[in-house]
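Checked the freezer inventory, then went back to the computational side. Two predictions to log before the end of the day. The first one is the construct we discussed on Monday; recording sequence and tokens without edits.
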Amino acid sequence: MKKKKKLIAILSASAAVLVVGLIVWAFFTSADQKTNSITPGENILQISEDYVPIAQQEQGDNVYKKEVRIVNQGNTDCYIRVYADFSNSDVRSRSYLSNDPEAAAGSFYSAERSTTGDTYIAHLSETAPHWEFVADDSATPLAGYYYYTEPVAPGASTEPLFTYVKTTNATDADITQYDIMLYSESIQVTDLSGEAYGTYALAWTDVLSRS
């Protein structure tokens, strides 16, 4: 029996901060050939954030720290993916993400989720270690998520997906409350026969095709 572990964290990027968590256990099976018993493996994720909110948004560039990592609190190696998006598409179009701990001016990348259109210039996953993004308009069941390309061992965490967020308000009329939505999932690194998938893409494609 297999269920997916899901964790949702919603962060308000204005003075009011909203964080909502939902945990669903995920169980995967592994067979012991000597006794023919079946034991469950647990995938338990935690979204870890180092968040420093701004007092209030202003006209111009609004930069605040929000370092996002995913921690494997289960007892089996797993592949991890994250859905991260803005609650307001207009805000998303003028927001940028950086995984640079110094938040250098040239380290911010478009938060857009498509590879088409004038607003998509460069994407965060081009510089985030071990993270790859599959755009919303990609013709694949993997579309719309950030994927951690390496297996994450029990007790370990991913590299930061991003560390800083910047939203640009050209005028006072652009200033609006918005949320950043984070949703994380994990799957085991081996298939039902116990063979390693080898890559995150093979693992997720196989699991999603059977869900």
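The second is the one RB wanted added to the comparison set:
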Amino acid sequence: MIKEVIVGMTLGILIFLVWIGYNILPIFLLAGVGILCYLAITQRGLLGATHARRYCPAQRISFADVGGQEPAKNEVKEALEFIIKADKISKMGIRPLKGILLTGPPGTGKTLLAKAAATYTDAVFIATTGSEFIEMYAGVGAQRVRSLFKRARDTAQQEKKNNAIVFIDEIEVIAGKRGSSGSTHMEYDQTLNQLLVEMDGIRSDDSVRVLVIGATNRADMLDPALLRPGRFDRQVKVDLPDKKGRLEILKIHVNNKPLGEDVELEEIARETFGFSGAHLESAANEAAILALRENSPKITMAHFREAVDKVMLGEKLNNKPTADEIFRIAVHESGHAFVSETLIPDSVSHVTITSRGNALGYTRHNPTDDPYLYTKEFLEHQIQILLAGSAAEQVLIGNKSTGAYNDFKEAVKIAKQIIVSGLSSLGVVSVEDLEKTLIHETISEIIRNEEEKVVALLNENIDILKRMVEMLQKNESLMAEDIRSLIQEGLQCA
């Protein structure tokens, strides 16, 4: 009724203006501009529409599709039981969980866990990212938060479901600590406040139970108000997978790929320490691409080794170093490989002088176990391995090069770790209270002592080192068995 009255009055006014001879063209132009602005604002979501994505049922992912995260999966499943068994839970007087926060490095499977949670609970799944709530217009983010939760409830009611999961990736964008230098803008605070209000409004007796799942790799940035019980009740660590987890992930990603008989997934899992699930998926995919490029009917171990190097270091470079540079690179990498294999047997996977990414050569190590605690001896061995490249250049060529810059940088980092851990000659110390000159002198002492050990080791086995350099120049790469064979033959001859 009101709309009809407004339209009638507007038409009457326009007719009257035309009758008295008034030019109404500017009015039409102004109205047109207003309509265009309204449509643009509405399309961009400034009036409440969000860019949230609806999870397609055809893409359903179960917990079986998430490999290498057993502790995280078990913890998420336990939290989801509060939704699945809501009636039983309410009889026990238990408050259902309102939020689960997934924290961990990128590519470890946080989004997959959220999608698997939606499948496990047969819930509506609405996904969005923190950056989609931030605009230059005040109040827009808060309105989008309200619309997001409303859409989750409305969609669940339309599909006649009792549960809805709202997944917010990169949640640190809208949930940063209030008052910090990076989030002083009022728009950020309003958006976070609205999210806190919405989570507080989730009740166990709602017709649609909403569970908020947030994901971040910067949990230290989140506002404490969001992390308190009653909002994000559970914080689940989704960490890098261990060797067993990497094997599970590899099995998932090669399930639809034709593998050669020589492929050893356990060996690949052992050689990929520090890889996330995304890295492993990329390695399996790159191996398949390499096999296709060579018209090979099956993916071989050589394809996987090449793929792991590519994911780790990048594509091979076309620019070729000079003959002198190739010799120096071969000397440098042979030093790394020899010292590593001598100090820690079976620790080298392969060594190459093929340029990749920013690396002119590369020695890939093969940890037998995933180390999490380090002894002083282990750390000293790591420093010796890092210094071995430049030490080999000094022994065989008579000078060093800038190629050892990253090695030195990492060696200094490990030396600092020795000091901080109370394993140096300084004993247990408060690093903050030490003079910088004393720290520098101690680091120099540690590195100097380890370098002397490396130079002595290389001089004692210089014939083996020369033979390894010669073989590396000839073949461009040496596998673990070739390196061990050279060392054994050299020791026997000595």
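For RB: The chain has four domains: 2-43, 53-237, 243-313, 323-493. The first helix runs from residue 2 to 19. Let me know if you want it refolded.
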